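DM from R.C. (forwarded with permission)

"hey, sorry to bug you on a friday — could you get me a structure for this? deadline for the figure draft is monday and I only need the backbone to look sensible"
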Amino acid sequence: MAEILTQFCDSANFTEVSLSQYGRYLGDEETPILPFLNERTIVTYVTSGTGTVKLGSSQHAIEPGSIVVFFPGVCINCTSLEGQQITAMWLELDGNVLPEILVRAGLTPQKPTLTLTVPSDESETAAAFTKLTDPEQEYGPLRATGIALELLDSLLRETPRPCQPKVSNLQRYYVDKSIRYIKAKYPQDISVEDIAQYCGLNRSYLGKLFRDATGITTQEYLIRQRMSVACSYLERGAAPIATIARSVGYPNQLHFSRAFHKVFGIPPREWQKRNRKN
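My reply, with the result:
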């Protein structure tokens, strides 16, 4: 008699994770990295060198074997120690479910670094990084995405204190709804109260749901979305700063400049001088 053995997978939504690009970084202690702001999530594995990475207002030590996550909208400033050369492997990911995966690994904007529980020569995570970023290999998008998902799976199994997700389907519904609203309405002068009203929830309750699911507040996500778009405009020199401010939801240029300075530590005009693409 025929028999069918079935195993159900309750994590099919992990396939929502998308891989944008990946590669290796070969540092130069003579040339520091200028502060930058990424639009997606960058997961990095440090292979050599020691130094520090400043993410927003917090500073973290990095060394060989460190996993460092650069979350979207966070100002990044890396510095190697004198005489050191930092090298790393990295991949850039996106997807609404990605924060949930990283939270399970214990990685949040407040705690963006960790050291794996196994040596680098035994780590499946390190092996997946090496395989994906091998310059001698050329992968199609499906194969590359498959390796990236394998990497995330290994990361969950090799983290010191993996966290079980505490995100219910209803919670994910409201968080996703909030994110869609923010991405559609950020050019307007919206507030967290507007987002909560759109979701039909109390502002405080939505804030708790959002922070539990993503590790950041609704207001922080809104600011990061606006700053990410503003940086792309500043890089291209597409318009005056006052126009850019209005296009990302700041009718008052002064308010925009203050918010920008709080994120990057420098005024938008100075940031533009350092990063403008000719």
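R.C.: lifesaver. The longest strand covers residues 18-26.
me: no worries. The longest helix spans residues 218-236.
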